[in-house]
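Recap quiz, item 2
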Amino acid sequence: MSDKTIWDKLQNVDRRVFYWILFVGLAVPFMFPLGLPVAVTPPTQGLYSGLRKLQAGDVVALSINSGVSAWGDCLPAMVASVTQVLRQDAKLVIWSVGYVDCDITYREIVNRVPEFKSKTYGVDWVYFGYCPGQESNVALLRDNIRGLYTKDIQGTPTGDIPMMKNINGAKDIAMVLTSDTGDVQVYYRNQWGPTKSSRDNFGAVKYPVAEIGIAMNLSGDMSFFLSGDLFGLTGGSRGGAEMEKLVGIKGDGTITMDSINVSHLLVIGAIILTNVSYLLTRGKKR
Amino acid sequence: MITNVAAYPTDILGITGLWAGLLLMLFIYSYPLWKENPLYRFAEHTFVALAMAIAIGVNLDALNKVAFYPLVSEGALLMIIPIILGLMIYLLLVPQYRWISRYPVAILVGSSIGLGMAGQLLPNIVSQIINTITPPKVGVAAFDWFNFVYIAIGLICVTMYFLLTYEHTGPVKPVTQFGRYFIMLALGAYFGNTVLFRFSMLASRAQFLLQVLKIIPM
């Protein structure tokens, strides 16, 4: 008979067992929602407050720089933000300098935001699609949108789109919302920064940029929110759930949060269990 | 409260797309949840091939819109320059003319650094320093003051940890050690958020699986 205790066995559990537990643990809360409360954090509140200040006719640029793989993190906050922008009767210019699959994300946003139904394409919003070039594109968009996007996604020359008649650069756009898995918000801050006339207390010129980022970006970009370089910031599905709460919609962010919470509890449990088993068996002859 | 989610597709193309996505996802997950197998490899190769095909198509389309179309239709002759520079990069594949490819690469790197440097100073250095040394306003919550002191101490300790012009001994030692703890705390937060992102991706896949199987609404 083996003299191995349960603690010995725990240290040798196949990692696939934990993967299965995790996958099932993530799936179950979708079927049986727990409805755990979501508290709104200052960065998300900053984004919502910024959107609430929009006047009818203001133009907002939505830069889709996250791929389909980051939908879980970015899509809920994008949908909630676009909903609020349209409720304010503001206009949307949508493009991407980061991901080739932005068309799918754009379609999904349009499908999920019912406010689009009462708006007219070309008058209230326009979509230009993806153009490779990253930071150099952002620099060009600051002064000459038509230099980069000669046509919209439907093939209409940019100059012929009613909404774009008086819009050709950062000075015509009230704010930028960038969904981000990387550094694109940095490009907007760097390249569009010196174009607005509003100055903060220290004379620094800051263009209103908000980031709808993946959770991974949150720690690093929080310093830019605290310094006022970003007026708003959402991190991951948690940020999406917070935005949905503020905007008053129940979307994927809210639905996913229970699952995320359960997964975290599972991981915390696993960390405690494995550490306890390690400490209890440490020094034992193998 | 308005429920704001998409609906289950009703057309054949939409349903086929959903099931193709689900099957390919399960093929990929068969690797971590079971072991490497032909289905996993099929899905992996399909993904790489599709991603490459889409990237080539989209980039050629963008090149057409930005350079070829203005050159041919609008007579923007300057567009010849980026097209030639782009073609020059392909000389990397011809050994005797490989040196020519260094010129467009040099221009690319130079222009990227120039563009990046121009805007870096204000948001990434000046703004951060101002924010770090500015105390919270009178009457704000005690937690803001705690944050201010915490960040100030952390900044000094971590900066001293990375200054290697002196030996980390004597009175400097506890400060640099404290700096190391601050770095570990920051890296822990980064790692935690990275794990959160991965879980979020996994959660959305679990949700997708249940939606396609119509166990939960789409």
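Chain B touches chain A through 54 residues (CB under 8 Å).
The CA atoms of residues 63 and 69 of chain B lie 9 Å apart.
End of item.
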